[in-house]
Design a protein that fits this description.
Length: about 300
């Protein structure tokens, strides 16, 4: 083996942004400015950071950006009213409701109310179903980002054993569905393991490609990984770190220092999957605007 290569979402997202800039300019030349709206209810600090980053990226790309911040006490009906307004707003081609929502609002009812043509998160059941049958209008941002990292790093997925660690609706489930589809960056044999799996290491050790989205800091250690595997770490966990000025640091679900030497390629945290999520959200928004421009 010739050592380990790093799969850096930072670099990969930049090349995707260059491609998106060209498509955005073409849309603008035809009179359409792609627009994304992001709705935040309450003031969860992590969500505030994400929402700000999404708005900033839109502006950088010359897209129309709307940020809606609603108070924590917003009622479910009040939020539904905002969703209906955005469904009808012709300047907004895609929008998302930042999760989690306050406990008095039913997330499912809100997601079901989003016009599937504007559901750039790909959370609406219609879009999840289309993705599952291999006829997607949108792909969910984080799994799509992981797939792009594999494709653009030249990782062969055809017939390979992909083990997905974690079964969330946002990452694990759609990731598994996408990797088993026919096509480039897919055609894999997929196994999903999760917190209830018996002898999880015996399965992760069989992975040619290990995609980890468990939400447990440093969960995957070297003894759980096959020699030469490709490892993608979707985890973002903030843990205490007395050595850092902030008193905390971001770590993935993979114990990077111990696992790295065993892999042929690995994505670090931070700098790995992180930057890809917003990038794929922007790609979905541009795609939604292109479809809207054609049907105008
Ligand atoms: N909260 C954490 N990740 C996401 C995401 O991808 N979309 C939305 N809407 N909320 C989130």
């Amino acid at each position: 083996m010739t050592g380990t290569s790093l799969i850096l979402g930072k670099d990969i997202s930049n090349s995707i942004y260059s491609e998106l800039s060209v498509r955005i300019q073409t849309l603008k030349n035809g009179g359409t400015v792609p627009g994304l709206a992001v709705v935040l209810v309450g003031n969860d600090p992590a969500s505030e950071v994400y929402v700000r980053m999404k708005g900033r990226k839109c502006e950088e790309l010359g897209m129309h950006s709307v940020t809606v911040i609603l108070p924590e006490e917003t009622t479910q009906e009040g939020l539904l009213e905002k969703v209906r307004e955005l469904n009808g707003d012709r300047a907004v081609h895609g929008f998302l409701i930042q999760l989690p929502l306050p406990p008095h609002i039913d997330e499912k009812i809100i997601i079901n109310a989003i016009d599937p043509r504007k559901d750039v998160d790909c959370f609406h059941p219609v879009n999840v179903g289309k993705m599952l049958i291999g006829e997607p209008d949108f792909l969910p941002a984080t799994p799509a980002g992981v797939q792009q990292m594999l494709v653009r790093s030249g990782v062969d997925t055809d017939g390979k054993h992909v083990v997905v660690v974690g079964r969330s609706n946002i990452v694990g489930k759609p990731m598994a569905a996408m990797m088993m589809q026919r096509g480039i960056g897919a055609d894999s044999t997929v196994t999903v393991v999760h917190s209830r799996t018996k002898d999880l290491p015996s399965i992760t050790k069989q992975a040619d490609i290990l995609i980890v989205a468990m939400g447990r800091p440093n969960f995957i250690t070297a003894d759980m990984v096959k020699e030469g595997a490709v490892v993608i770490d979707v985890g973002t966990n903030r843990i205490d770190d007395p050595d850092s000025p902030k008193g905390s640091k971001l770590v993935g679900d993979v114990d990077f220092d111990s696992v790295k030497g065993k892999t042929s390629a690995i994505s670090p945290v931070p700098g790995g999957v992180g930057p890809m999520t917003i990038c794929m959200l922007m790609a979905n928004t541009v795609a939604a605007a292109e479809r809207a421009a054609v049907s105008r």
